[in-house]
Amino acid sequence: MFSGTLTALITPFRNGEVDVEALEGLVEFQIQQGVSGLVPCGTTGETPCLSEEEDRLVVETVVRVAGGRVPVIAGTGSNSTDMAIRYTRMAEEAGADGSLQVAPYYNKPTQEGLYRHFATIAENTSLPIILYNIPSRTGVTISAETTARLAEIPNIVGTKEATHSMDLASDLRRLCGEEFCILSGDDSLTLPIMALGGRGVISVASNVAPAAVSQLTQALLEGDYERGRELHYELLPLFRALFIETNPIPVKTAASLLGLCSDEMRLPMQPMRGENLRRLQEVMEEKGHLLPTPEEV
């Protein structure tokens, strides 16, 4: 259902408010650069610091500007099942094409608790749901066995995998069947996950290098692994530089350097300074051929 490069959109701010004009520009830029989909209000979008009203504004803006040209999968997860349902219904009303549901953070539910959480959300929406497995942020891993149980629910259609475990990715493909959509949750793991049967990536790097990341996933979807490896190694220094500090600090800083939006963030996030900023600038200069030209921004 979903494949290719889906951008985990940053949320631009100006003077403490969501910068709607800049967000509109980001959406248009992404689509013109060839991405396959957009994922607003995820971790990269600083959603923990967005109010419910701002969350709605962001999703509605992205849906409106995308205009059906690419699917919009809204991040609507929560560590509260009731709140996840509320946000998912909001996204459905706003016209989103899917929902990204992170594993409940801080609570650390059991596998049965995870199953019931996601199953209950699925019962309360008609949107296709992509699970989000990122134990480094949530403190809990959705097992392959639990995912396989969830895959039997018709509108749970895939998972975003950010566990760094190729064994788990292999078990997902083995247990969940060919129709279940596995997406990489880390840019640097897109190649190995797609080699194991994944269909693309929910990408941080495509905020600033959408065309190049799209070329990578397209090559891999077409089975051109020689070209895929070439692009992977070409992009790898940029992938790593964009995680030199906690996401989304580097990618939002990079977007600012390209003139896509300001580098304004909400506490506890702060724009990069010092040696890490210099390193990011060096990598962006070195990999400038992978980045958009000023005319494209």
From TrEMBL:
EC numbers: 4.3.3.7
Principal cellular location given in the protein's record: cytoplasm
InterPro entries in UniProt: Aldolase_TIM, DapA, DapA-like
One Gene Ontology CC term in the entry: cytosol
Keyword Transferase: no
Enzyme class: lyase
Positions that bind pyruvate: T44, I202
One GO BP annotation of this record: diaminopimelate biosynthetic process
Subcellular location: Cytoplasm
Record text on subunit structure and interactions: Homotetramer; dimer of dimers.
Protein name in the entry: 4-hydroxy-tetrahydrodipicolinate synthase
Gene label: dapA
